[in-house]
Predict the structure.
Amino acid sequence: MSPHPNDSKPIIETRGLIRRFGEKVAVAGIDLQVPRGSFFGFLGPNGAGKTTTVRMLTGLLAPTEGEALIAGRSIREQPVEIKRRIGVVPDTLALFDRLSLWEHVTLVGRIYGLTKSDTESRGEELLTLLGLWEDRGVYATDASHGMRKKTALAIALLHAPKVLFLDEPFEGIDPIASKVLRDLLRLLSSQGTTIFLTSHILEIIERLVDRVAMIVKGKIELVEPLAVLQSGGRTLEEAFITAAGADQTREVDLSWLHGKTD
Amino acid sequence: MAAREDGLSVFSLRSFLWRSYWRNVGKGGLWKNANMMTVTVFSLLGLPVLGLLWAFTAISFLTGESQRGLMLSEIFLTGIMVGWIVLPLLIGSVTGRGQGLELARLMQFPLSAWKLFQVGVLTCLMQPVYWVLLLGSVLSLVVLGFGPHPVQGIVAGLLLVLSAAVLSWAIGLLLSTLVSSRRGREIGLGILAFGMAPVWILISGDYSFDDDSLTITLLDRTYLLFDETGRQGILAALRSWTPSAWVTGVMSGSGTIKGILSLGGLLAVSLLVAVLSLKRQLAHPPESIGTSAARLRTMGPLLGLPAALGTATAKELRYLSRTLDALMGYVSGGIASIWMILKPEHGPYVIALVMPAIVFNEMVIPLNNFGLDGKAVDRYRLLPLSSRQVVMSKNLAYLLLVLIELAAPVLVALFRVGAPYTLACLCGCLSVCCLTMAWGNFVSIRSPAPREFFNFDSSEQAGGMLPILYSLAIWAVPGGLGIGLMSVGPWAFLGGEILLLGLAAGVWVATLGSAGRQFENQAESMREKLAG
């Protein structure tokens, strides 16, 4: 079978993407290309613009300027078409408080036009894999943070998306769930799903991704294959700290911390 | 298998909407829900009036008194239209927050603005307040069937009902869009300032009511507002531009084309505004308050408060000044001041109306002290503040906000109305504030409800119907005292209100400690309730 003519094009592409909130510039004109089928790590310090970028790429927030294309479609012109092809675990998880975990699965299956049997079989598989099957009747509002996160992941995968956006998926979940999630993401990546992942946990990023971008103060400071970044024995942490400019932090005394309060 | 790409019928989501909505309603007790309260109050007060009006309209048509029937149906339809626009705004159902499947959360799925709009409409249909409105609308269409041109009348009536329903969404979403961004608020204030010009003209005019005719004199010229027949004058001309008049025009056969076209145009414009506003709002969520760094200047030295208490008060005041209620308070105070400058003789009435209105408008604050804090309510327990000081900082911020809003009308009234009367009204208002705080501190801790900044949202009060009734009853104390003492003289009025203020302040101070202890004991459950 010959390759699809679009296979060589990046599946995610941004051109001068800017987002301002009032006078604050959260994302200051980023140009990014994510190859099809890659496992892409999007890193940056707190407040660097990672979540704002993900929200723009997933159609949850309108860009102030610039353009983003997902699978060749414009996020400004065809946001609904794009949402049919992507799965998202947003930072807020965006679950409906008064629906049970299973009701989330059936609702989302219906929205994506899956048949009842497809929805139920896929939903059962996903919830079982993520250890949620026994708790499927729990309302989202009564579920723990980890359970909510896993539910958000299950509904993001239900329609077999081409691109998966994950905003801090490893925050607040236990080591067992973390391993399940890592294995699942590896499997998806090996099957050709493009994964766009933000995380602060560099050890996990190092074990998963094949390409890394770093955003600092709204600007892309670095885009490299992980292997290139780590050449010469440099760790991802060192690269991160250098790119973020944290190695130039002013030395402070803090001697007052040694004093004792009553 | 790839997902099927289109053909989603929003109607197929009805069971999810239904379950989610009713579980949401039931979570804090059915009768604490704003929607339920609105339905109950409206059903008790509004429905009997509408029922009578409906019966008289039907009888008029059936007995051949078409003119009277047309007049009554115009009133009936106006009532339905106002109901459609006002009730959804009152319960804050327009943006779908807390009413079922929140539209902002549905944004992650492949649903167009039009489909999200349909979800919103479907969610509305789950709510009892809309059942009442639908019932009223169906009744209005039935009564139009008794009129002179029943088919045309029903078509026009249907267009009016649909327009009113969509208009309620369009107005709510437009307001929400305006107030949720800094630029929008600037535009809104600009429109408001521009809109003050006709208000200024109307206030400065001299009105006279002679021989069943109302006239206004402006710049030495007299204009007829309406005559005894109700067909001549400016107001009569304006009436012909109201949608209900278009319907009666169609029914009478005197303006069929104009009426149908106008109603169709109104429906189209409302639909367009509603969908565009929804699209805009979903893609541009409300901006966080204050993009510049917060500068909480210590108010301690200024107010003679300890620094920690002063800073907590300043933080709370900063929060409160960024709510819609505060904006409405400033506007009311501004209009009242202009009015008293232009018409000093109206001063006593203006001050007696506007000062209580401002206080009443802000009563939601002491009834829901922690509504704007969200999950950060825990932070208070980590600060070096006693629980009593936490509650007190909330109360002081509320009092300061009320005083800021009252400042302009009070200053003007001191010169235009006189010091004793103005100060007596001020003392009356402050005693209401103290009594509301004394009660509200307990209610706000027992059943806090989350609130949002500048996002068009129902100003949720805590505790349901009882605190609202209590708050209304509080007014009877300074009001009754004022009416009784005013006949004795202004100084007696002032003396009585000062005494009452002293008593009310004493009650407030006496309950602070107990409210603080309650806050300490219930902080955990508060956090859960405020986290939604």
Observations:
- The CA atoms of residues 88 and 165 of chain A lie 5 Å apart.
- Chain A touches chain B through 36 residues (CB under 8 Å).
- Chain A has one domain: 12-246.
